[in-house]
Design brief:
Elements lengths: L9 H4 L4 H11 L6 E17 L2 E19 L2 E7 L4 H15 L11 E2 L18 H18 L3 E19 L3 E20 L2 E11 L17 H17 L2 E2 L3 E7 L5 H9 L4 H5 L20 E4 L20 E6 L2 E2 L6 H7 L7 E2 L8 E2 L3 E4 L6 H6 L3 E13 L5 E13 L2 E7 L2 E5 H6 L1 E4 L4 E2 L5 E4 L2 E4 L1 E4 L2 E9 L3
Parallel strand pairs: 4-6, 8-18, 9-16, 15-24
Antiparallel strand pairs: 1-2, 1-5, 2-3, 5-6, 6-7, 9-25, 10-11, 10-15, 11-12, 13-14, 16-17, 17-18, 17-19, 19-25, 20-25, 21-24, 22-23
């Protein structure tokens, strides 16, 4: 996209100036406030859906607002307004200061720009600026492709969403940061019926790309990316029609590459966010430098991968994102930090301060979290299992951060019998403990893959886009909940 100059957007649009920003910062600061910032946001978004070949929904929305934060050690004051005027910013600043600590105001000069070292999504034309008709045609093509896969596909639902978010951040260090973030996502769901049985399959992808991303021809699959999405959703629905009830009990489990990394994200990743560890509520609290996993496990959080859904030029506190090693060959090396927790724990910033919108205060969050590839051939991993489960895709799950216990349901899974993938199963759930599971990783494949670009992470009522990844891995034992 064209270079975004904050002066030509926020400052002019809302009749602000450097001196007025200094006034806002002066209103929020006092000698007991350790840190303060002002976050301005302007987002244009759209969604559209196709069901049974008919357009059911097309919408376009604009949201705007500003939030002011005051941090006094462990205490945070936050106030926001969806009407960006200097008067409202001053009221928000005063409110945030009084929540955190009441005292005398002080001045701060706004003189420095924090320039990001990244340019991770250089999109010339934002997807939201592409004609609606072109997006509808894409959904119609996906509908036709999915139906053509098998006559048992009886219903198809396709959806598209995109946005462009502009952010401008000023802090009490006198720094100003800004970014323009494109984001899009394409999804398709198929319902297959046979003999009175009905099953569902879903697939999709996206990221911080140009709209042409969906029409790119994939090197490892026939056809374009959007064709692959439609065919995968149809294939999953058809496979599930023949699925048998999942067995239950402790067994060896093989996780496939890519999206199964969501289990890693939920069961382990959240436990490595700094707020939980500072408060001592994570299963990983106080364990830096100790062994927490098999020596085959190296886990990374990387917000600098170009075009990825979880990537950011800078986080929502204006800090450039980075590649953070969390676990290296089984040893816990680090946590994910925002400014407040980094200061309190006296640790370096990692660029993981994130917020859902101007109406939310930032907190430590993941970006793109994945396990590095190992040396094993995926086929050898399967052949090493006498009786177990091969999980390809996951749906919902629940995690207890303090204990690390998790429950995840598999959308697509298969039995492994005598080293071969056999029958698809339904109703399989994985039940375990995140830190414990890491110690039971006995083989790691050489086929690391990142997800297709659909991840959304929830924490304390806030949702942010994320990425996950995983090579094929073998876990010596997980309790599988089933119906057989």
């Amino acid at each position: 996209m064209p270079t975004f100059e904050p002066e030509s957007f926020f400052l002019k649009k809302y009749d602000l100036s450097s001196s007025s920003l200094e006034s806002v910062m002066g209103r929020v600061l006092d000698k007991k406030i350790n840190y303060a910032d002002l976050y301005l946001e302007y987002t244009t978004s759209e969604t559209m859906g196709l069901e049974e070949g008919v357009v059911k929904k097309v919408s376009k929305n604009i949201s705007q607002g500003a939030g002011v934060r005051a941090v006094a050690e462990e205490k945070t004051g936050y106030a926001y307004s969806d009407d960006i005027t200097l008067e409202n910013l001053m009221v928000s600043a005063k409110t945030a200061r009084y929540i955190a600590h009441a005292g005398e105001t002080q001045n701060v000069p706004i003189v420095k720009y924090r320039s990001s070292p990244h340019d991770l999504y250089p999109v010339e034309t934002a997807p939201i600026d592409i004609a609606v008709e072109e997006k509808i045609r894409l959904l119609e093509k996906m509908d036709c492709i999915a139906r053509a896969c098998d006559p048992r596909i009886k219903k198809v639902m396709a959806s598209y969403a995109s946005e462009v978010k502009r952010v401008f951040i000023v802090n009490s260090k006198g720094e100003m940061s800004h970014d323009t973030l494109p984001l899009m996502r394409l999804n398709v769901t198929c319902i297959a019926e046979d003999g009175g049985r009905r099953e569902v399959g879903s697939f999709g992808g996206g990221g911080r790309h140009a709209f042409s991303f969906f029409s790119e021809v994939l090197s490892d699959h026939s056809g374009s990316r959007f064709e692959y999405y439609a065919k995968e959703a149809a294939r999953q629905a058809i496979v599930n029609l023949s699925a048998i009830d999942s067995p239950a009990g402790p067994m060896e489990v093989v996780l496939g590459p890519g999206w199964p990394g969501i289990l890693l994200h939920e069961a382990i990743g959240h436990g490595l966010e700094a707020d939980f560890n500072r408060k001592g509520t994570s299963a990983f609290s106080g364990r830096l430098g100790t062994r927490v996993a098999s020596d085959l496990c190296t886990i990374i959080d990387d917000g600098t991968i170009p075009g990825r859904r979880g990537s950011l030029n800078c986080d929502d506190e204006g800090v450039p994102t980075s590649r953070t090693v969390l676990i290296e060959k089984g040893i816990l090396k680090g946590y994910l930090f925002d400014r407040q927790n980094a200061a309190l724990m006296k640790m370096p910033l990692t660029g993981n301060g994130r917020r859902e919108s101007y109406a939310h205060s930032p907190m430590p969050r993941m970006t793109n979290t994945f396990m590095l590839a190992g040396d094993s051939c995926p086929q050898d991993i399967i052949r090493s299992v006498k009786r177990g489960l091969y999980a390809v895709s996951f749906g919902g799950g629940q995690v207890d951060i303090t204990s690390g216990k998790f429950v995840f349901s598999a959308n697509e899974a298969y039995l492994i019998e005598n080293g071969k993938i056999t029958s698809p199963v339904r109703g399989a759930t994985l039940i375990g403990n995140g830190p414990d599971i890491l110690t039971k990783v006995t083989m790691v494949g050489n086929d690391l893959a990142l997800d297709a670009g659909v991840g959304t992470c929830g924490k304390e009522g806030q949702s942010v886009p994320v990425g996950v990844g995983l090579p094929t891995i073998k876990i010596s034992e997980i309790t599988v909940g089933g119906t057989a």
